[in-house]
Design goal:
Layout: H1 2-7, H2 9-29, E1 35-43, E2 49-57, E3 66-72, H3 83-91, E4 95-99, H4 118-127, E5 131-141, H5 143-154, E6 161-165, E7 185-188, H6 196-200, H7 212-218, E8 239-242, H8 255-268, H9 282-307, H10 311-314, H11 330-352, H12 365-391, H13 401-404, H14 414-442, E9 446-448, E10 451-453, H15 458-485, H16 494-523, H17 532-559, H18 563-580
Amino acid sequence: MQEIFRQHKALLLSLILIFSGGLLAWLVQTGAGQVELRDTRFNSASGATLSALLYVPEGVNANNPAPGVLAVHGYINSRETQSAYAIELARRGYVVLAMDQRGHGYSDPPAFAEGFGGPAGLAYLRSLEFVDPNQVVLSGHSMGGWTVLSAAVAMPDAYTSVVVSGSSTGTFGVPPGDASFPRNFGLVFGQFDEFSPSMWSSATGAGIVDTEKLQNQFGVSETVQPDRLYGSIAEGTARQLYQPAQTHPANHITRSGVAGALDWVQRTTSAPNPIPADQQIWPWKELGTFLSLLGGILFLISAGPALLQIPLFRQLAASPAPSAGIRDRGWYLAAVIVMAIPALTYFSFQGWAAVIPSSALFAQNLTNGFMVWALGNAVISLLLFSLWHFALGGRAGGGNGHNYGLLPGHELSLRKLALSLLLALTVVFSLYLLLAIVHGLFTADFRYWVIAVKLMNGLQFRLFLGYLLPFTAFFLVFALILHGQMRRNDAWSFARAAAVNAALAGGGILALLLYQYGALFVTGSLAIPSQALLTIVALQFVVLLPIAAIISTRYFMATGQLYVGAFINGLFVTWLIVAGQATHYAF
């Protein structure tokens, strides 16, 4: 037993992290069993199936109904990103319905349909016999704000108050607000919100207080004062602005962002169990799912080497051939180019993808953009690699398919290629099975903030199969560059090689984010304000690409070839992206 632990301690640690993280998440989001958490489904007026997590506090029933809150996430998020609000409101005695918008999470596509699903969510919440229909609050972040405001338009007498974070009226089909619509309106809007131009016609988040649009919403003609109550809660004309010093995606992952929404809900309803808004426990749930996420990544890194010890996969185990990559000072120039390519093409290549209409095969608009960006990067990288190999000394320096990891042992049999794919499938499917167990036991996934590993439904799995080949092709070229061209020293430890490759993979996107957010925090506006959405989306790639580099490095050093790591990355990243994106095609 001691020998097994010594050889596989990383794998055992990954399992401990996965299950202990799931247990911690469950304890927090259920109040150690005092809140019932239901994974529920309901239908819209058109018959579309919508998904939600329903939080029901202990003691709430038909004879003792509680106020209800409809909580809705933003674009390309899912119901779980509302867990901070849901956990805190449920422990304060509210019934909370945290729903997936249409075309998001497990709700039927297309995205944007039927008021984003908001009217159906409100109708379902009010239909629950243990919800007080006279005290229903609508809460939404970003596009979730438009979702709940659409519900307010459709059912004007069915809610008590509204609080939106990083959102606005008068946008995306929602009528402009005034002193009467919506009833009792609370607004949480960060001083550094990236969407201030489109939401409130202000160059900066801090500057929305002086815009005509916000002043009309508050029924005043002067600067709107944050934290001041305007109007009357009793008359339904109340207005209040909360303006924490944060960005748009930080609204639902910071105490100050969550506190504003909690304060407004409790002030505009009879809070069953009042707790000061600044007293919050939800970060412990975020810690739990973060531990599970770390465990999942560690599992991907450690499960394969363990499987290489069994007879079926043992023939894949091999050391890499001697490096024939770029040496000396030329390596640093090449490193700058490798890091610059994804950053310089990030906005433009994804913009080109807008010409690709969503279809039954490629049904997710943003995933289409990622696919075009990935394939464009692969083509550019492959062309530069070929130029280096044939004209700039790669081949003359001894570089060949064996050294690059393309042809281990100077040949690659179909059997070994099939075994490489089988090993990758085994590793990724095992992680998927672990996630399914954790979800079944604890109603939790693997996530931190915008990085989320979720189960796929049937439609998402079909889409996963369509996107899998192009993303895997990218990761094959990705591995070729890291291990064929940029591998400097065969004596490096895994930790050192992984760190260098992670920097190469994510350094350019990190620099792009520093450029964008450096300008935001200095001037109040992004350096390229028109790219707010893709800038926020880039937060996941500054993490995902280094993780992919670490996985690729681990399997290259264990097998001497590129394929296992590229297949694992293709499977894992495609799964993560497809399960987390909005589906736009109307199936």
